[in-house]
């Protein structure tokens, strides 16, 4: 039974059991409608407790049903039936109470949550707004500014914050059902909708908060719609606001942005569907990172944040201490930004050590090499790892383009070698490419997949080639951007077109940030190695020859006189020496850039480097800020 009703004395218990996340599917909605009728009809019942079996309370509407016509009973009707019941309904919450799940809970007459519960209305992340009364009930329970942040920001809040704001009535440890039963006598079936809204104290401040949220969404329509829905809830009678919310929700459901966001939601959950990711894993508790530079220290911090014990190895004592400092700075940053307490930070530090002694690698379950990107340097590190590590320890390389299969063959047992390609800064960036060389053991792949989840990364499997997935696509569209400016476009037009499309920054701004010398070195390497598809970039080379490496030298494609980026007249003069100006419109620029991404993506698929087009999209969204609400370059090539 998806929804069952049992009775103990005068208390009815309605249990939803719809694994994995108790989504409010058609079966759940029908079962709840019947449960309301049964409880209303049973004269012996004086109160009803609503809870879920399994790992969570309802985590939302069933997203898989969104592409089919809605089937009755609709969630708003189920919630209205519960809210209008003559007996109090108490929601008992645990896990992730999201979207339609929170709307259901808000239709109940009281809410009790387990510690650790998270509650939210994340519909904007799916290109939607709440469609079952969330925008109307939430500002009746919590202050309007809190409601706005939750609805238009889409981030869940922890149980203690929910209690403080009025969203829930109690946080209870121990047996939650007992706690709810104890509360039952005090709860009256007063509808949430009958409460007055908790209007903002300062409407101007509220409006500014709304404008900030919309600006941050960079073109994602659901955020602006969410703001409008909260405003309606504040300004209109509840019934009118509810009807308008429902109409907006149904409209958005078919919007291309919502389709793209649904696609990427499931694409992200499908990247590790390779059978090798699902098998037995090797235990990983102790990780060693070799190389304490920007990348190595970020990887070490990411592992510490995930609860692992980390040893950092460097070539000598001063380098080990510099690496330790970098890790410590990242941990301090987490405290400064309020991500963790000083006490939690200190306990992470206790699980960290650093040295220059290869013998200290003997305990490691996994070693991640993050030394300078050079074949000989990495081969030397692998020879040392072969001698110093346990025979069952996994050896991972963080190379961004070297041949991982060739590197694996330099050790006695190549089956324990894999690529773990992090993106800088490694403790922040979501993407992790798991590079799978020939001959790797299945349990090594499964362990890498499990580790990616533990690190909170979005992982994709990649085959071995120069640049794997994300950097290969990046190189292709950078080359197209170079071709655009060589054809007469200005770098500022190209960047503006990309930002207008929804990218966080344009390709030339990005080069200024990471340093033009990096691309220059990569071009030289690719030219020397004869990498197929290599394309010279004479204008970028000219900037580098002039010593204009981007932000770090105060000028690159832009000038950074007082930190702010401004178009640079010297670059315009340099461009004029190479070709006449020939302005090009933003649509054409984006068609060219997307076309380059899609052609490279098609090649990556043909060569079997990615298993499916959606993995390429996930890599671009998680790795390079491709706007989620556009789905990804490959999704766009299939969408009219
Ligand atoms: C909504 O509620 C609209 C309403 O306002 C109005 C309605 C009228 N539906 O992520 P996981 C699947 S919009 C269907 O790996 P975790 C997921 O695909 C919705 N399926 O686990 C996966 O399947 P598989 C608002 C769903 O522990 C499995 O469950 N709610 C749904 O890392 C496990 O998922 C949201 O946006 C769903 N709603 O994270 C919440 N949710 O095993 C979306 C999950 O076959 N969900 N699945 O690959 C989440 O954020 C996370 O899944 C959650 C669990 C935090 C719940």
UniProtKB/TrEMBL annotation:
Localization (cell): Peroxisome
Domain 3-hydroxyacyl-CoA dehydrogenase C-terminal: residue ranges: 467-560
Domain 3-hydroxyacyl-CoA dehydrogenase NAD binding: 286-462
Metabolic or biological pathway: Lipid metabolism; fatty acid beta-oxidation
GO molecular function: (3S)-3-hydroxyacyl-CoA dehydrogenase (NAD+) activity; enoyl-CoA hydratase activity; isomerase activity; NAD+ binding
Keywords, ordered alphabetically: Fatty acid metabolism, Isomerase, Lipid degradation, Lipid metabolism, Lyase, Multifunctional enzyme, NAD, Oxidoreductase, Peroxisome
CDD domains found in the cross-reference section: crotonase-like
Pfam families linked to this entry: 3HCDH (PF00725), 3HCDH_N (PF02737), ECH_1 (PF00378)
Catalytic activity line of the entry: a (3S)-3-hydroxyacyl-CoA + NAD(+) = a 3-oxoacyl-CoA + NADH + H(+)
GO biological process: fatty acid beta-oxidation
InterPro entries in UniProt: 3-OHacyl-CoA_DH_NAD-bd, 3HC_DH_C, 6-PGluconate_DH-like_C_sf, ClpP/crotonase-like_dom_sf, Enoyl-CoA_hyd/isom_CS, Enoyl-CoA_hydra/iso, NAD(P)-bd_dom_sf
Family from the record: In the N-terminal section; belongs to the enoyl-CoA hydratase/isomerase family. Belongs to the enoyl-CoA hydratase/isomerase family.
Subunit structure comment from the entry: Monomer.
Full protein name: 3-hydroxyacyl-CoA dehydrogenase
Species of provenance: Pseudaestuariivita atlantica
């Amino acid at each position: 039974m998806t929804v069952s009703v049992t009775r103990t004395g005068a208390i009815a218990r309605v249990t939803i059991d719809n694994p994995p996340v108790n989504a409010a599917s058609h079966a759940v909605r029908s079962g709840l409608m019947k449960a309301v009728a049964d409880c209303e009809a049973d004269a012996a019942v004086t109160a009803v407790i609503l809870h879920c079996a399994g790992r969570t309370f309802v985590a939302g509407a069933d997203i898989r049903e969104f592409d089919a016509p809605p089937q009755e009973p609709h969630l708003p009707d189920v919630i209205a039936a519960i809210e209008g019941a003559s007996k109090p309904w108490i929601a008992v919450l645990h896990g992730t109470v999201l979207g339609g799940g929170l709307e259901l809970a808000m239709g109940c007459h009281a809410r009790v949550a387990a510690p650790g519960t998270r509650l939210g209305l994340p519909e904007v992340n799916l290109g939607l707004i709440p469609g079952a009364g969330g925008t109307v009930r939430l500002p009746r329970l919590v202050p309007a500014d809190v409601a706005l942040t939750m609805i238009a920001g889409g981030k869940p809040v922890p149980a203690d914050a929910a209690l403080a704001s009025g969203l829930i009535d109690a946080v209870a440890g121990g047996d939650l059902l007992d706690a709810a039963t104890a509360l039952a006598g005090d709860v009256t079936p007063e509808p949430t909708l009958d409460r007055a809204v908790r209007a903002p104290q300062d409407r101007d401040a509220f409006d500014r908060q709304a404008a900030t949220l919309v600006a941050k969404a960079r073109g994602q329509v659901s955020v602006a719609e969410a703001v409008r829905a909260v405003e309606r809830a504040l300004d209109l009678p509840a019934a009118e606001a509810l009807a308008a919310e429902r109409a907006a929700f149904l409209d958005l459901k078919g919007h291309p942005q919502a389709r793209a966001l649904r696609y990427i939601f499931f694409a992200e959950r499908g990247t590790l569907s390779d059978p090798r990711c699902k098998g037995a894993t090797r235990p990983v508790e102790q990780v060693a990172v070799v190389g304490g530079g920007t990348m190595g220290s970020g990887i070490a911090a990411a592992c510490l944040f995930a609860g692992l014990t980390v040893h950092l190895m460097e070539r000598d004592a001063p380098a080990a201490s510099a690496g330790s400092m970098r890790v410590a700075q990242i941990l301090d940053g987490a405290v400064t930004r309020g991500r963790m307490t000083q006490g939690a930070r200190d306990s992470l530090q206790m699980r960290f050590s650093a040295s220059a002694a290869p013998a200290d690698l003997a305990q490691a379950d996994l070693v991640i090499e993050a030394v300078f990107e050079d074949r000989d340097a990495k081969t030397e590190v692998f020879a040392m790892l072969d001698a110093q590590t346990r025979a069952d320890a996994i050896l991972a390389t963080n190379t961004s383009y070297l041949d991982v299969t060739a590197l694996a063959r330099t050790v006695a047992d190549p089956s324990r070698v894999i690529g773990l390609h992090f993106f800088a800064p490694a403790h922040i960036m979501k993407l992790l490419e798991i590079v799978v060389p020939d001959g790797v053991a299945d349990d090594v792949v499964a362990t890498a997949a499990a580790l990616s989840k533990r690190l909170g990364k979005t992982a994709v499997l990649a085959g071995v080639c120069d640049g794997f997935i994300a950097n290969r696509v990046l190189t292709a569209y950078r080359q197209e951007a170079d071709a655009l400016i060589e054809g007469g476009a200005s770098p500022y037009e190209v960047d503006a077109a990309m930002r207008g499309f929804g990218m966080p920054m344009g390709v030339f701004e990005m080069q200024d940030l990471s340093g033009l010398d990096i691309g220059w070195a990569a071009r030289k390497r690719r030219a020397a190695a004869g990498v197929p598809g290599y394309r010279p970039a004479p204008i970028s080379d000219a900037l580098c020859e002039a010593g204009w490496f981007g932000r770090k030298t105060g000028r690159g494609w832009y000038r950074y006189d007082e930190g702010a980026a401004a178009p640079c007249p010297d670059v315009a003069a340099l461009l004029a020496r190479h070709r006449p100006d020939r302005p090009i419109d933003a649509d054409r620029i984006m068609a060219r850039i997307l076309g380059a991404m899609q052609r490279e993506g098609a090649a990556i698929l043909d060569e079997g480097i990615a298993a499916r087009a959606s993995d390429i999209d996930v890599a671009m969204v998680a790795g390079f800020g491709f706007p989620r609400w556009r789905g990804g370059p490959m999704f766009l090539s299939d969408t009219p």
